[in-house]
Amino acid sequence: MEQALLEEAQAARHEMPHRDDEVRQVVDLIIDNVNQLRDTQGLKAPARLDSATALFGGEGFLDSMALVTLVVAVEQAIEEKFGTNVSLADPGAMSQEHSPYRTIGALADYALRRLRAA
Amino acid sequence: MDAPVTLITGTRIGIGRHLAEHYLRLGHRVVGCSRAPVEWTREGYKHYGADVADEKGVKAMFSEIRKSYGRLDHLINNAGIASMNHSLLTPTSTVSAILATNAVGTFLLSREAAKLMKRKGYGRIVNFSSVAVPLKLAGEAAYVASKSAVVALTHVLAREFAEFGITVNCVGPGPLATNLIRSVPKQTIDRLLAQQAIPRMGTLEDVANTVDFFLKPESGFVTGQTIYLGGV
Question: Strand B166-172's sheet: what is its strand order?
């Protein structure tokens, strides 16, 4: 039963893909915040950043404290930009496969889903 | 304006109200919250109707603090509830409510406060436990479990927040003349007091004095500590 509900919810999500401009806005917002952290806190980030850039785990450039700092900064930037308070905390953070923090694109997708759910 | 911003939970009555008035007198900008409306007001005091266990309400309150003040210097996690009952007579709904307010509330407020404090690289968080924890008070299983959780949170959050310049400490008062213990029988209170090195009821000033110490800028090397009052 629970599995059926989960699949139904996933199917519903697939029916409502994020609009490209929304995704781009959030990806840009995350990149801006990475750049700010590079400038203000000496974060060692790749010179070129895009939605495929790995953030955390595997090839990611963030350690756990830098991840905390980035996620908090992105939460605040989203509230400033969209006027909605979302929490980007996630229990699957440490999962290589499902972590919403694995790439900039995954984090943007997760943030948009949280924005829609708010 | 350089006056520190101090958020105190549970300011409607008792310790919370006393601390709010105390820090207003010391020139802080004080923000308070409680589930029920407050029947008092002071210049420099801003109140929010918020349940500390309600994530949505708490996050909304922090958004307002961020917009209004742009900073938070101190958080005093005072809000708490208790229920005196033998564990065999305690419904799980009571246990859940106590854990939600005392433990989850402390976690939630600390998490949101740290997000705001880390911007400045400075913050002081003071949690509230109780002498009921070291005294292993029979008849207060859920309350003691929740206040033990607060001590454990204090230890771990102190380590997690240290690199943001935030200290996390805890005060554990003994019996005080507040509403929280109004239904506790006198002989129970007397038994409790007899286990203290200084066998008297605590005062609101005793609590404020301990919180003052933890909030001082000079206390930046003091973190992860719990002070039990009365010598327990």
Answer: B45-49, B29-34, B5-9, B74-77, B123-128, B166-172, B226-228
What is the domain count for chain A?
1
Dist CA B154 CA B170 (whole Å): 7
pLDDT tens, residue by residue, A77-108? 999 999 998 889 877 666 667 789 999 999 99
User: Of B42, B141, B34, B116, which is closest to residue B78 (Cα–Cα)?
Assistant: B34
The whole-model pTM stands at: 0.87
Q: The tokens 């996690």 sit on which residue?
A: B77
Domain span including residue A109: 18-117
What CATH number is given to the structural domain containing B46?
3.40.50.720
Count how many pairs of residues, chain A against chain B, have C-beta atoms within 8 Å: 13
Residue range of the domain that includes B97:
5-228
Has residue A13 been placed in a domain?
no
> What is the Cα–Cα distance from B40 to B38, expressed in whole angstroms?
6
Residue A13 has pLDDT above 60, yes or no: no
Structural domain count, chain B:
1
Instruction: List, by residue number, the catalytic residues of B.
Output: 143
Tell me which chain B residues have a C-beta less than 8 angstroms from the C-beta of A85: 59-60, 63
- Out of B59, B60, B163, name the one closest to residue A87 (CB): B59
All residues of chain B having their beta carbon less than 8 Å from the beta carbon of residue A79 are 63
CA distance to partner chain B, nearest, from residue A58 (Å):
23
pLDDT in tens, A47-63: 999 999 999 988 899 99
Of B63, B118, B163, the CB nearest to A85: B63
- Tell me: ipTM over 0.85: no
Residue B66, chain A, CB below 8 Å: the answer is: yes
Asked if the C-beta of B159 comes within 8 angstroms of chain A's C-beta atoms, the answer is no
Contact present, B59 and B16 (Cβ < 8 Å):
no
Of all residues in chain A, the one with the smallest CA distance to B59 is A85
Domain membership flag for residue A96? yes
CATH number at residue A94: 1.10.1200
Contact A75 B163 (CB under 8 A): no
- Alpha-carbon span B167 to B123, nearest angstrom: 6
At B182-231, the pLDDT tens digits run: 777 788 888 889 999 999 999 999 999 999 999 999 999 999 999 999 99
- The answer to whether position A1 is within a domain reads no
